[in-house]
Write a structure and sequence with these properties.
It is built from seven helices and 16 strands. The relative contact order is 0.16. It has one domain: Carbon-nitrogen hydrolase (Nitrilase/N-carbamoyl-D-aminoacid amidohydrolase). Helices cover about 25% and strands about 30% of the residues.
């Protein structure tokens, strides 16, 4: 399975509309890949909370339409990262926004919606402004070899909560995709937790972060793809813009699970 990870980098002075255009062009350059991944909240930014209300869109808004067209133009399955979704009405916490990821097929069809379950901010930012997602999402994506691979969806701060990934593994996931807006100050956690999730669930982990700055906050970059063995198959060793292109052997994940069947020894 050939995967492209687009580590989008930008500064606070770039208009979001220009960034959408730039991201779509970057996706178009990845024709020939089976899966292309963009980061979390790359259009409205992950830390400039003041922009979220004004830039929120419904599931079928302009952002989604642009990403569907980008997937169709490149002929790739696209995990478009996430955007600020305007919900049809207030949720359980009274909020009308959500941090929502969309996945599109190579024909531009929307395949999945994932709303971020764990909200970052310790009472401000996401917890104050956004509803928490409730659904564990695992879907089958084309694997490039005529089959499919069960793929678990999560976003950024979710990576700190291993229970989510255990649920995904139990639902059959062999591939975990994690877009993020992870800051440079804790980028060591980002890389370590990705390897931990891969090892403990014996899954391939695809991590796509942003570079540049969000509301003056330096972003961490260091996107990576980790094998089920914990081996880093490919990584970006900096926080600037970059594209990782990596061929993932999914059969190796199956073989590793069979040769080291640690998951069968779970008792809790």
């Amino acid at each position: 399975m050939r995967i492209a990870v687009i580590q989008l980098s930008y500064g606070d002075d770039e208009p979001s509309a220009a960034r959408v255009e730039r991201a779509a062009a970057a996706v178009a350059e990845q024709a020939g890949h089976d899966l292309v991944v963009l980061p979390e909240l790359w259009a409205p930014t992950g830390f400039d909370y003041r922009r979220w209300e004004a830039e929120a869109e419904p599931l079928d808004g302009p952002w989604a339409a642009a990403m569907a067209e980008a997937a169709r133009a490149a002929g790739v399955t696209l995990h478009a990262g996430s955007f600020v979704e305007r919900l049809p009405g207030p949720g359980a916490d009274g909020n009308t926004l959500a941090n929502t990821s969309l996945v599109f097929s190579a024909t531009g069809e929307r395949l999945a919606v994932y709303r971020k379950i764990h909200r970052f901010g310790f009472g401000s930012g996401e917890p104050k402004l956004m509803e928490a997602g409730e659904d564990v999402v695992v879907l089958d994506l084309p694997d490039g070899a005529g089959g499919t691979v069960a793929t678990g969806l999560s976003t950024c701060y979710d990576l700190r909560f291993p229970e989510l990934y255990r649920h995904q593994q139990e639902a059959g996931a062999r591939l975990l995709v994690v877009p993020a807006a992870w800051p440079l100050a804790r980028v060591g956690h980002w890389t370590l937790l990705g390897r931990a999730r891969a090892l403990e669930d014996q899954c391939v982990v695809v991590q796509c972060n942003t570079g540049g700055t969000h509301a003056g906050v330096p972003m961490g970059g260091h996107s990576q793809v980790v094998a089920a063995t914990g081996e880093v198959l490919a990584e970006v060793a900096h926080a600037d813009g970059a594209v990782l292109s990596v061929d993932v052997d999914l059969d190796a994940t199956t073989a590793y699970r069979e040769s080291f069947p640690v998951l069968a020894d779970r008792r809790l």
